[in-house]
Amino acid sequence: MAMHIGRPDDEDGPGILAEINTTPLIDVMLVLLIMLIITIPVQTHAVKLDLPNGAMVASTPPPAVTIEVAADGSLRWDGQIIADPPDLEVRLQALTAIPEQPELHLRADPNAPYRQVAAVLAAAQRHGVAKLGIMDGEGGGR
Predict the structure, then answer these.
(1) Antiparallel, parallel or unpaired: β 132-135 and 104-108
(2) Are 26 and 41 spatial neighbours (Cβ–Cβ below 8 Å)?
(3) What is the pTM of this model?
(4) Tens of pLDDT along 77-99?
(5) CA-CA distance, 66 to 105, in Å (whole number)?
(6) Which CATH architecture has domain 65-135?
(7) CA 98 to centroid of chain Cα atoms
(8) 38, 82, 84, 106 from 71: Cα distances, Å
(9) Hey, where are the domains in the chain?
């Protein structure tokens, strides 16, 4: 596309020949076309899932077990006093033997000795407790 620019009364003058440079427009068009070609397959991609066809069976989780560490370092398992560390080990081993492990909640008094709390955490880790929650002394979770 060319255009003759000059004075209207000067027909013999050299004039200026101005053309529109379409190369940048073609470059932008090609980039947009490539982006469109790349993004269309992503939008139409579907993930196939095998969904169950049976009725849903609601399972109730087992009740949580609470271990309390008192300020004097004594331990309680759901309110029952734990006499010694081997008793705690036996109870934790029985807890982890259950196929669907209940949650273990550890509630420590703010003045409880750290050594006792750390011993309970280490025993729970040794026996492979899967769900452990640490609660504050007032009963709320942290």
Answers:
(1) parallel
(2) no
(3) 0.54
(4) 888 888 888 888 888 888 888 88
(5) 5
(6) 2-Layer Sandwich (3.30)
(7) 27
(8) 65, 15, 16, 14
(9) 65-135
DSSP string, 80-97: EEE-SHHHHHHHHHHHHH
Query: What is the rounded distance in angstroms from the CA atom of residue 27 to the CA atom of residue 103?
Result: 62
The Cα–Cα gap between 113 and 82 comes to 16
Structure tokens at 19: 């053309």
**Exposed, middle or buried by CB within 10 Å (0-12, 13-18, 19+), for 102?**
middle
pLDDT tens for each residue of 41-88? 766 667 788 877 877 777 777 788 898 999 888 899 888 888 888 888
What is the identity of the amino acid at 110?
Answer: P
Q: Which long-range contacts (CB under 8 A, 24 or more apart) does 12-19 make?
A: none
